[in-house]
Amino acid sequence: MRLVDAEASSRENKRLKPALDEAKLKLRHACVEEIEFSAKRGLDKVVVRQLASGRWVTETQHVTISGATGTGKTYVACALAHQACRKTARRIAR
Is 92 left (phi over 0), alpha (psi -120 to 50) or beta? Predict the structure, then answer.
């Protein structure tokens, strides 16, 4: 079973790489699972989880991220874009 899982993971990564290359993310390894929700940042976990679902992409909606300098807007944007690329790669696999 591990061999099958490894092959599936390898194929998904092969589909993901071109999508990430095309996205030209400033922070290519940003990840929604690593977003910090400190009070200073003022991020709402529920909203970030909803955005991480990728529904905004399938419904062709836009996301605007605002906040003070140094609060991680770029990281959050790149993490959401990376998640969208991952979900797209998985969808193509099916």
Answer: alpha
